[in-house]
Backbone:
């Protein structure tokens, strides 16, 4: 199902975790709307995407985080021999620095966030999974952030192998909350989708983000 080029481009377009219209996905895949509709029906039946009808239009997103992780794992395998060359390309540099990965931050920024939270006893294992320590809550409070507990059926925080860095960035409820906080503070901005099959997920680090967020994460 994923091996078809048009369907793989649609799935890559949805990796930011947001909804997209059938027309947007047709453009991203480079196919006619009727062909895109047939592909989307197959992806929906296979449980890879979900559809939300709104009036006369249909909007699609990835079914869940497991599908997003599977797509990234396949990308890692596909680029085993070409990884360094592929990620040295100028068009991928913004994507590598910071990108939206199914509602949380990926790329070098996401890896740094996960590393800093694991440092200095800011996270600990508990019966319910990973949780923040007092040191972790104090560290996050420096940015005016207070974490809410994960909802039932969600994991609070865990490592997710990063496509470009081949090290873990953070996924889970805490990662989503932090991403929303960074956007609300205008430290990160989501770029307008362009249909280029991946670059639309690149995040812009704003001047205020460079002043507040990067030093906090130990980045220049």
Residues:
């Amino acid at each position: 199902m994923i091996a078809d080029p048009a369907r793989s481009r649609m799935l890559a377009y949805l990796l930011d975790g947001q909804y997209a219209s059938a027309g947007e996905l047709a453009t991203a895949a480079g196919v006619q709307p009727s062909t895109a509709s047939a592909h989307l029906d197959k992806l929906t039946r296979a449980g890879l995407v979900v559809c939300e009808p709104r009036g006369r239009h249909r909007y699609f997103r990835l079914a869940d985080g497991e599908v997003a992780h599977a797509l990234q794992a396949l990308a890692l395998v596909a680029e085993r021999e070409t990884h360094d060359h592929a990620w040295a390309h100028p068009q991928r540099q913004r994507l590598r620095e910071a990108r939206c990965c199914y509602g949380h931050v990926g790329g070098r920024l996401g890896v740094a966030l996960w590393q800093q939270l694991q440092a200095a006893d800011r996270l600990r294992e508990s019966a319910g999974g990973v949780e923040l320590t007092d040191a972790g809550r104090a560290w996050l409070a420096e940015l005016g952030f207070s974490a809410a507990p994960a909802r039932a059926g969600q994991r609070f925080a865990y490592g997710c192998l990063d496509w470009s860095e081949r090290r873990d960035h953070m996924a889970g409820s805490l990662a989503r909350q932090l991403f929303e906080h960074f956007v609300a503070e205008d430290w990160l901005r989501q770029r307008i989708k362009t249909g280029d099959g991946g670059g639309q997920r690149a995040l812009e680090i704003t001047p205020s983000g460079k002043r507040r967020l990067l030093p906090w994460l130990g980045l220049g």
Q: What stands out?
A: The chain has two domains: 5-62, 84-216. The mean pLDDT is 87.
